[in-house]
Specification:
Layout: E1 27-39, E2 44-55, E3 59-65, E4 70-78, E5 87-93, E6 96-105, E7 110-119, E8 124-126, E9 129-136, E10 139-143, E11 164-172, E12 176-179, E13 182-189, E14 192-198, E15 210-213, E16 215-222, E17 228-234, H1 238-247, H2 251-262, E18 270-274, E19 283-285, E20 288-291, H3 303-311, E21 320-321, H4 327-344, H5 350-362, H6 381-398, H7 400-414, E22 418-419, H8 421-431, H9 435-447
Parallel strand pairs: 1-11, 17-18, 18-20, 21-22
Antiparallel strand pairs: 1-2, 2-7, 3-6, 4-7, 5-6, 8-9, 9-10, 10-15, 11-14, 12-15, 13-14, 16-17, 19-20
Bound molecules: zinc ion (ZN).
Protein name: Aminopeptidase N
EC number: 3.4.11.2
Domain Peptidase M1 membrane alanine aminopeptidase: 250-445
Length: 457
């Protein structure tokens, strides 16, 4: 069962004010079943997507998001007993696949769309650069935040529509396909191997990923709770492998630390993929994170980012965003989790990290509203730092015992669902003895521009 938000459905004709994507209205997708084949050398993706859906409006037609680099060959529909659903025609342009039905589908039916497509996937252009399916020197990756999923599958690309995923992908023997979800099985047929993954929990489309490459699976150990932690390391360079094993050697201890602070790890395993290519930034996916070779220096240079990406499994992946303007709920917490890790590891107190970043932040223009930074500044470092400082200010105000108990109940309640700032605030209220002070803090950090005073006990 997938928990859904109870917010009102977006107004028809409107678009996501951050990604610019026009909302696809009238239905929910409950499950994506992807049956894919990927040839590395020609960067060719072929497949069939079966979308299990139901509709909350009567539908004559509907739209899905799909990049123009993929060509739709066939669309058909499967109704259920009593409901005939037939596709009259489809049109694919401008990153939208519009499907028109022969007869109107009455409200509240269950049906599936079967979409056969192929093409040379490439990242989609966005105001944050090129995102989505990307060819590497020997393989490919997917990094979709916030709106790159249509670069490889037809979908409803909005963070609040979590769905189950069942993905089969055939790749040339010798390559691994590492996808989000649990590995169900692997079978060889001729020169191709099919890898089968399934999610147990609903996943936002931007967190769905597939990595294809010549990877070696290496166990990094098990968390105290039993969660296995695995690394996927490019085969062939023992120097790179040594750097990775060194820099990721604390990954298991990080899982232990965060389980203690935030509550149980939300997925059945944690996997890190390190690509042979350098990457600009690491990125989180569902139960998985992606780093470039440049992020493993052998000198712990990016320890804070290794911690940061892990913490997104709680903040962002399990607790999903209902809308992008709440991005600080992901990035503020992930950045604060970096400081918490350094504190746990005995390197530096979170208060000391907070102070040094506060001093840096104070030098920058204070023209960004944390509660709604706008698309342009969505991934601005000030969102991360002011977000983390907000979390720190809450901790200072409430004291450790109350603060961490509120965070744990917030995390437990939102598990595999969607959260909004008011959900967090509700949990903070429950442990707070001074609601007026909490309101004042909340407003000054989130809803006003000037940088508040540095929080001290
Ligand atoms: Zn992040």
């Amino acid at each position: 069962m997938i928990k859904r938000r109870l917010r009102t459905t977006p107004v028809p004709g409107t678009s996501d004010s951050y990604t610019g994507i026009n909302f696809n209205l009238g239905y929910h997708i409950r499950g994506y079943e992807l049956d894919l084949t990927y040839r590395v050398a020609p960067n060719l993706l072929m497949g069939t997507a079966t979308l299990r859906m139901d509709n909350y409006h009567a539908l004559d037609s509907l739209t899905l998001d799909l990049a123009n680099s993929l060509r739709v060959e066939k669309v058909s529909a499967i109704g259920t007993a009593g409901t005939r659903v037939e596709v009259a025609r489809f049109r694919h342009s401008d990153r939208k696949l519009r499907i028109t039905f022969r007869n109107q589908i009455p409200v509240d039916q269950e049906f599936s769309l079967v979409i056969r497509y192929r093409g040379n996937p490439r990242p989609v252009r966005s105001q944050w650069g090129m995102i989505g399916w990307e060819e590497l020197s020997n393989g490919s990756l997917v990094a979709s935040q916030p709106c790159g999923a249509p670069s490889w599958l037809p979908c409803d690309d909005t963070p609040d529509e979590k769905a189950l995923f069942d993905v089969k992908i055939a790749v040339d023997n010798g390559y691994s396909a590492i996808a989000t979800g649990e590995l169900i099985g692997r079978s060889v047929s001729g020169s191709m191997t099919t890898w089968h993954y399934r999610t147990r929990e609903g996943m936002a489309t931007y967190l769905a990923a597939i990595h294809v490459g010549d990877y070696e699976e290496v166990s990094l150990g098990k968390a105290a709770s039993g969660v296995p932690v695995l690394a996927y390391i490019p085969r062939g360079s023992s120097a790179l492998k040594a750097r990775i094993l060194h820099d990721f050697s604390k990954q298991v201890a990080m899982v232990d630390a965060y389980e203690e602070l935030f509550g149980p790890y939300p997925f059945s395993s944690y996997r890190v993929v390190i690509t042979e290519d350098d990457l600009e930034i690491p990125l989180e996916a569902h139960g998985l994170s992606t780093f470039g070779a440049n992020h493993a220096t052998g000198k712990d240079t990016w320890e804070r980012l290794i911690a940061h990406e892990l913490s997104h499994q709680w903040f962002g992946n399990s607790l999903g965003l209902a809308q992008w303007n709440d991005i600080w709920l992901n990035e503020g917490f992930a950045c604060y989790a970096e400081w918490l890790w350094l504190e746990k590891a005995g390197v530096k107190s979170a208060a000391a990290s907070a102070l040094s970043f506060y001093e840096e932040l104070a030098k920058l223009p204070q023209d960004l509203l944390l509660a709604d930074p706008g698309a342009k500044d969505m991934f601005d470092d000030r969102v991360y730092k002011r977000g983390a400082l907000t979390v720190h200010a809450l901790r200072v105000l409430l004291g450790d015992a109350a603060f961490f108990s509120a965070i744990q109940s917030y995390v437990a309640e939102g598990r595999h669902g969607l959260v909004e700032p008011r959900d967090l605030k509700r949990h903070l209220y429950m442990v707070s003895t001074d609601h007026a002070a909490l309101d004042a803090l909340w407003n000054s950090w989130l809803r006003e521009l000037p940088l508040p005073e540095f929080p001290t006990a």
